[in-house]
Amino acid sequence: MMGDLLVHGLFMVYVIAFLMGMATIFTWVERKQSAVMSDRIGANRAYLRIPFTQVKLVWMGLFHGLADGAKMLLKENFTPATYDRFCYLLAPWLVAVPVLVVFAVIPFGGALQPGHLFSAEWFPGLAATFGDRSYPMQIASLDAGILFVLAISGIGILGTMLAGWSSNNKFSMLGAARAASQMISYEIAMGLALIAMVVTYGTLDLNQMVQWQQQGVWGILVQPLAFLLFLTAAIAENKRVPFDLPECESELISGYFTEYTSMKMGLFLLSEFIEIVVISALVVTLFFGGYSLPWLGAEGFVFPGGATWDLPHLVVVLLGVLAFTIKVFIVGCFQIQVRWTLPRFRFDQLMDLGWKFLLPLAAANLVITAIVQWALL
Fold this sequence. Notes:
Layout: H1 2-37, E1 48-49, E2 56-57, H2 64-74, H3 85-102, E3 111-112, H4 124-130, E4 135-136, H5 145-153, H6 156-166, H7 170-201, H8 206-215, H9 219-222, H10 224-237, H11 249-252, H12 262-287, E5 300-302, E6 308-310, H13 313-339, H14 347-376
Antiparallel strand pairs: 1-2, 3-4, 5-6
Helix pairs in contact: 1-12, 1-13, 2-12, 3-5, 3-6, 3-12, 6-7, 7-10, 7-14, 10-12, 10-14, 12-13
């Protein structure tokens, strides 16, 4: 029992560190990527000075994320005179917490056997405590992982609506109304794309989906249309350009969180970048083999033709975690590239895309997938 608690506790600590760390890195990536596309240097002002010297550590602007966090923590915590206090304070947490909770069912590595991580001569206690027990590297190994993702991700809209309504600001309310209509519109297409993947893999368990791809081909090769539909709808759910109508600085100041300051506003901004990480992790898990690498098995690499390369269990585990991290980073950078490439849609164009284009395509893709799966039985 204590061993199980220890392992899952370490998983939770790692996941929180992973999400916060990657979100901070993506704030820097956004600055640098926008600078490159605008032919600027960008993100090169914040630095740390080595004490008692004139040496400044700029490191390509990596300290800008730390400066942003310090600024949010130290800013005045101003609140408007008229608002619903409970809902106003609850809204940022309803936006941020579900984003973190969704990652609980995403596998970020293969099977972990703590008793086999190190030599029994070096750490005899590990082998005695864990034996041959194996743990899937995810916080919650649920059979219905996809349903959990859909259920929890839908809670975020409640925080957005509460933020806009409780602020008692016309711009905030308009942003919240836009967010609600946008998220409802695109969740349908995203759900149908996920159902097509469930039909393809024959399971709701995300870990089993990764194992299916590990034994066959990546999901993007089997369901390229579902990939495009899911990624488009997920970016729209995150309310980033070209789908940033709920915020839309040029029209609504800051949209639904106009009346928020200090770290309450920081939670809204941070949750946006954490959601980039979560979306990337879901895309990697569903379409790019998750933590798997070609020919990598539990004992090492097994190449075509029968050649093998045996590896220690610790190395296999680290390779899986590293592969997952690199894939997530690449997909996240692609999302940021989209944000700095496409112009913002008008609201009528946004609705037309969701209801008249993505929804029919997602429904047609699901029907064709079901027919093909039935024919292959």
